[in-house]
Write a structure and sequence with these properties.
The chain is of the alpha/beta class. The chain has helices spanning 37-47, 62-67, 72-80, 84-95, 110-116, 118-121, 141-152, 215-220, 232-239, 260-271, 275-287; strands spanning 6-11, 31-32, 35-36, 52-57, 98-103, 126-129, 133-136, 155-161, 171-174, 177-178, 181-186, 189-192, 203-211, 245-249, 253-256. Strand 10 and strand 11 (181-186) form a beta hairpin. Helix 3 packs antiparallel against helix 4. The longest helix is centred in the C-terminal third of the chain and has 13 residues, at 275-287.
Amino acid sequence: MKPVRKAIVPAAGMGTRFLPATKAIPKEMLPIVNKPSIQLIVEEAAASGIEDVILVTGRGKTDIVDHFDAHPSLEDSLRRAGKEALLQEVVRPSKLVRISCVRQQRPLGLGHAILCAQHLIGDEPFAVFLPDDLVDAPRPCARQLMDVWERTGKSVVALMEVPREDVANYGIAAGPRAADDDRIVTIETLIEKPRIDEAPSTLAVVGRYVLDPAIFQHLRHTNPGRGDEIQLTDALARMLGHEGLLGWLFEGERFDAGDVAGYLLANLNWARKQPRLWRTVQAWVAARS
């Protein structure tokens, strides 16, 4: 069985929920404390053992690629000023993984974005990270899924329980739990954003996947669905009767950084990791309580 060494990060969306901030700045470059959110995604990939990350971008997204490139003049300036700690933070993104970039020329859906990177994946299994989904976990979420792939040889998606009133915002999966590990679900049904009365469960698919390259063939035979886009969920549903598909109830906390409220909560969560900063936040809140 081939190990997972490559990942696709679809980052071509327009970020309309963050306008006007995203009129000129890619939403993936909005900071979580002092790091662009896309850097947290790539850090998770590197910590999981991913070596190559393919960014699928659109028009106006060159800042994302630049962030992971070297910046000699800035680095030299920091070095001359003796700001070694800051220099290491500036250099670090370019050292995490090998970055490649492909362009999704038209917004034809998540499934189409993944197809855009097929030539760089070849016949290898690969991970997919949706940049809006930030996961804070003691063991990286993607690494959890990669471990399931290595144990079973089957494609696996991250799952979490959501309130029934929220099922229309997610792909919803259903199936029996494994006898030897109740975090593993053998998915038998998968529906993209069902109505409450159509939802087969409250197990939602969130933005981490480890996929067999067979998914590319299913994507090519998937007709445009909701929004006239090629939906990854529809292609995954095609896998159920062929290669099979597992779900993994991941350990960790997920933040929807594509939503303004979720983005603010993500900032607070990562601020907690910096004691001096967190004390300032706590003092500000206490003074207004």
